[in-house]
Amino acid sequence: VGRYVHYRNNLTRFLKQFTCYLGYTRQRELEADFESIIGEPVLQTSFEDIERSAAQVYTRKVFLLFRTVLDRACGVKVVGCEETPNCLIYVMCKRSYPDRKWYVSMIPSITEFKCSCLRMESVGIPCEHIIALLRHLEIKVLPESLVMQRWTKNAKQCIEDSVENSSAVGRSKVISLLSDCYEVCRLSGKCVQKLDLSKQTIWELFQRLRDLNMQNNTDGGNDNDDGEEVHVRDPVRARTKGCGPRTTLAGGKGNRRTTCCSICQEPGHNKKTCPN
Predict the structure, then answer these.
(1) pTM score
(2) Distance CA 38, CA 59 (A)
(3) pLDDT at 168
(4) What pLDDT was estimated at residue 104?
(5) Hey, what long-range contacts does 67-73 have (CB within 8 A, 24 or more apart)?
(6) 114 in helix, strand or coil?
(7) Whose CA is closest to 89, among 74, 101, 107, 76?
(8) Predicted local distance difference test score (pLDDT) of residue 216
(9) What is the predicted pLDDT for the residue at 163?
(10) CB–CB of 169/163 below 8 Å?
(11) 103 with 89: CB under 8 angstroms?
(12) Distance of alpha carbon 7 from alpha carbon 14, whole angstroms
């Protein structure tokens, strides 16, 4: 963001640069989606089945990060197992560091894994200890419990399905519409013919939308998806810094401390006007 906006930019310059930044991020997003959809990566590790399963689920950028985990999993082995009433606890260690141990718990009923390194909970990608355990158990497909939805190829579709009718989506569409209107004004420029064409098109669209609103009002429809009115109130008045509590008397004036003379300690005058 720092390449596009600066704290010294005025509001007009900031909006223009921020619009350019949004276009840049959307372009990068389209390129990332294209790389994830087109083609399949070449399998390079000994975990071919798990690597193929991850390539079908993860985006291309996340898959490249997951491939490094597969490389490190080649040096991890299972050295022990303990059975509990609820789960199985496997003891893992690296071949180069046999003294260091990690514990991976598995719930067979729901095929859920948890490692003591907590890398799955922090990063969202299975660690090399869990991958080594999957190979030990001869599991060839990456379980759904180890796949975080935000790193998958269909993450956008899941978000759109869950918040399709939410108010946040409506506000984002309004912002996108404002951005499109700004682009129309920019393309029109100072050409009279382009400006007349844009104005005529907007006026025709305005009439169509007005007719639709009148038809909805006649049919008893409501354009507000939430069905709630938003009431904007005055902001809370903040007290200035250093303003202490004020106690008022019956007369309405504040309780002020009476100053006294520093010489005679009598009120009504100070040391410059003191008669003593």
Answers:
(1) 0.54
(2) 11
(3) 62
(4) 93
(5) 69/125, 69/126, 69/127, 69/128, 69/131, 70/45, 70/128, 70/131, 71/45, 72/128, 73/47, 73/128, 73/129, 73/131, 73/132, 73/135
(6) strand
(7) 107
(8) 80
(9) 54
(10) yes
(11) yes
(12) 9
Token code pair at residue 168: 């946040």
pLDDT of amino acid 22: 86
Cβ atoms of 67 and 51 within 8 Å: the answer is yes
CA proximity to 80, closest of 98, 94, 69, 92? 92
* Both structure tokens of 264: 């005679």
Q: What is the DSSP letter of 3?
A: T
**Is the Cα dihedral 247, 251, 255, 256 positive or negative?**
positive
Report pLDDT for 227: 47
Sort 146 into a burial class: Cβ within 10 Å, 0-12 / 13-18 / 19+.
Answer: buried
Q: Is the separation of the CB atoms in 51 and 43 below 8 Å?
A: yes
Amino acid at 269: H
- Give me the residues of the chain with pLDDT under 50, please: 225-227, 249-252
Q: How far is CA 201 from CA 193, 195, 215, in A?
A: 12, 10, 21
What is the sign, positive or negative, of the torsion defined by CA atoms of 140, 144, 147, 149?
positive
